[in-house]
Specification:
By secondary structure, this protein is mainly alpha-helical. The protein has 6 helices and 2 strands.
């Protein structure tokens, strides 16, 4: 199991932990996910926080965390760790990722920034 697969499993665990019968504690789940996402990315905490905030505002707006939203967060985790993702982010999503990376570029190690920009280019976000 790679880091991304473990992260995906952790999302499911958090979703289960925040369910009480048919009620879902979205606020609690989002706090747990934020803590997990940022702590899993110590090499780029500020970027991780920015990406999480964007994800939360754009994709986690329902009464609970939908599978599609969880897949997008998992893809962001894979991106930050230089792993293959699940291809759940659209080209428009990748453009937003590119913007977020650009905002934090001066705070990222050069090798990490280079790897991230290579992925962004491969995903067609520069067009």
């Amino acid at each position: 199991m790679n880091k991304t697969q473990k992260f995906s499993s952790d999302i499911q665990r958090i979703k289960k932990r925040n369910r009480n019968g048919s009620a879902f504690n979205l606020s609690g789940a989002l706090k747990d996910l934020e803590s997990l996402f940022v702590s899993q990315n110590p090499h780029c905490k500020v970027l991780a926080q920015s990406l999480f905030d964007w994800w939360k505002n754009d994709f986690a707006r329902g009464p609970e965390i939908e599978d599609e939203a969880a897949e997008k967060l998992t893809e962001l985790q894979a991106f930050l760790n230089g792993e293959e993702g699940n291809e759940s982010l659209s080209q428009e999503d990748w453009r937003r990722v590119k913007e977020e990376v650009g905002y934090e570029a001066e705070n990222l190690p050069l090798d990490l920034l280079s790897q991230m920009m290579k992925t962004v280019v491969e995903k067609g976000a520069m067009e």
